[in-house]
Amino acid sequence: MLEKLSLHESLIVHLDKGEPEIMVKRALKEMKYFFKTIEENQKTIKLKILHES
To answer: By residue range, what is the domain housing residue 23?
Structure first.
């Protein structure tokens, strides 16, 4: 899915906190994608994923 993300597109993902969040963030960093937290509560987190510029 991320491979199809163009430079001007973003992807919003909802994740459970804890291990899913840690694994996704680690993979995004390794793949050189930029992400920011746009919403967070005790159980879930929402990330916006973009190409690193």
So the answer is: 8-42
- Separation of alpha carbons 32 and 19, rounded Å: 20
What pLDDT, in 10s, does the model give residues 1-53? Answer: 677 888 888 999 999 999 999 999 999 999 889 999 999 999 999 999 997 65
Place of tokens 């991320």: 2
pTM listed for this prediction = 0.82
Q: Does residue 2 belong to any structural domain of this protein? A: no
Does residue 48 sit within a domain? no
Nearest alpha-carbon partner for 26 in 5, 47, 4:
47
